[in-house]
Amino acid sequence: MSLPLCDERPGPNLRQERGQREVFCGLTGIVWLHRKIQDAFFLVVGSRTCAHLIQSAAGVMIFAEPRFATAIIEERDLAGLADIDTELDRVVSRLIERRPDIKMLFLVGSCPSEVIKLDLSRAAQRLSQTLMPQVRVLSYSGSGIETTFTQGEDACLAALVAQCPQMPEQAAPSLLVVGALADAVEDQFRRYFEQMGLTRVDFLPARHAADMPAIGPKTRFLLAQPFLSDTARALEERGAIHIPALFPLGVEGTEAWLRAAAKVFDVGEQVFQDTIASAIARAQASLHRAREKLAGRSLFFFPDSQLEVPIARFLSRELGMELTEIGVPYLHRRHLAAELDLLPDHVQIVEGQDVELQLDRCRAIKPDLTVCGLGLANPLEAEGFTTKWSIELVFTPVQGFEQAADLAELFTRPLMRRELLEV
Ligand code: SF4
Fold this sequence. Notes:
Helices cover 44% and strands 17% of the residues. By secondary structure, it is α/β, with parallel strands linked by helices. It is globular.
């Protein structure tokens, strides 16, 4: 969660803003989490609006068996005419009977379930008692009340941490990489760690329910995403120790992120260099074209994904873009400390949102490129702004050396499209 903004050192200007917000809710995280945990099912307990959001964001799976669904809270439930616990038990039993492949079931709370104060954690405990060991049932909130869309993953992983086994006291220290990464990216990082000689490396979430990592005081964890404050807190409560680092976005961020782990596990400098040197050279060369396109172009961020600060650092330092305002939904000062140190002094960082004021500032600045949520993109495009949907930063594999050029291309594409339209 956010920390007070009492900035006493030189660096970017930080301030908070409160007002109307334009963000998606945490249910969105199901779109990438259901692909990541391959034997999990996400059952949203919500309204028809929630069902529409999930289906339009994830697409309807016609041929495959879907691994998410919505248990609709009907008017009878809202009016207290139905026993909602009994209804939920009935829905879950039918689901598990039909789908023996499900090993982990998430009951996902929504705005309607929170408004009627439905206790999904109690329901998850009750259902787990009946369904274990075949199925473990967990719960978390994906509601849009005072949250932004990446917090769904944070809430999901925090719930998972509570269920991870305890690491034995005599176990050797191990590295835990926290945050859902595309499988190809996870495999690349695993190879780098192996080449550095790190043999005990786990990823959270694991790809299968039975493989969730053991956690304890010997766990050293690296965050792969900047929006996992509740997950980090849950890990620290179990004794795990955070490794502060830049986030693995761009060449500089990926090198610093890997180096932070190498330092904690006493990897020699030569071994570290041998592991990453050729990947760095390739990645730097791959950024050349994007740099030509982006250098000197101005950039404005509306708050949405919580990836804004590390992405801004990458675009400014590696591609020469001019940062104007960086809006962030929440700013975790400790997790983002290294990132904030690398931003230029003149940059304005605004935590929270008053969308009308921010639109006024954006119009006054007239940036070459505006990064924003889907709801703002079309109106801004209609006004002549060039926009990038921030949700693509989460749907696209962007972490690591091999993906640095893909990340840059996400920002060159809208500018090139605009140029074509103007010809
Ligand atoms: S959880 Fe809330 S914000 Fe999200 S779709 Fe459902 S009602 Fe809308």
